[in-house]
Amino acid sequence: MTWEEMFQRMSYFAPDAERVLVGYPRLVPRDTTKCLTAAPGQTELPFVDIPQDALPVLDQVQKRLDDVMNKTAVDDGADFVDLYDATGDNTACDGADRGIGGLLENSKLEFGQPIPWYAHPNEKGRDIQAQHVATKIEAVLNR
Predict the structure, then answer these.
(1) CATH 3.30.1340.30 for domain 3-141
(2) Which of 81, 64, 62 is nearest to 73 (CA)?
(3) Tens digit of pLDDT for each residue in 28-43?
């Protein structure tokens, strides 16, 4: 199902609903040299063996996806939460300030052994993103 189809179905089944699409947090910082150092308490680099020169490409793909999501939401009259720009200082490579766990950094989940973050939001990232989403939803509901 495309985002357009999703919005159409939402409009059909809940015509009075306020629709909000949430983008992705930024994974790779502008300065990719930050990715050449393991985060405090970690032994692996945030993106492990992904070459530094490939990281800008990953970032460009992610930014393009975010832009497409934003345009789709706006074109359909929905609101968009831009986490990409809002989380630029909390990427996987931002050391103690990271809001994204490194690829092989252990999360707090365990299934017999710790489960890595696999570049998903850690606790800090969850809280940062939740605040941005809540702020947008509050603004949408109060207009």
Answers:
(1) no
(2) 81
(3) 999 999 999 999 999 9
Q: Which helix or strand (DSSP H or E) is residue 20 part of?
A: strand 20-22
Q: Which two tokens stand for residue 119?
A: 């570049």
Q: pTM of the full predicted structure? A: 0.90
Helices and strands: H and E segment counts in the chain: 4, 4
For β-strands 106-110 and 114-116, DSSP reports them as antiparallel
Q: Both tokens of residue 90?
A: 């909390």
Chain-centre distance for alpha carbon 127: 12
Domain boundaries, the chain: 3-141
Cα distance between residue 141 and residue 66, in whole Å: 23
| pLDDT tens for each residue of 60-103 | 999 999 999 999 999 999 999 999 999 999 999 999 999 999 99
| Range 96-128 burial, b when 16+ CB lie within 10 A, else e | eebbbbbbbbeeeeeeeeeebbebbbbebbeeb
Contact 36, 95 (CB under 8 A): no
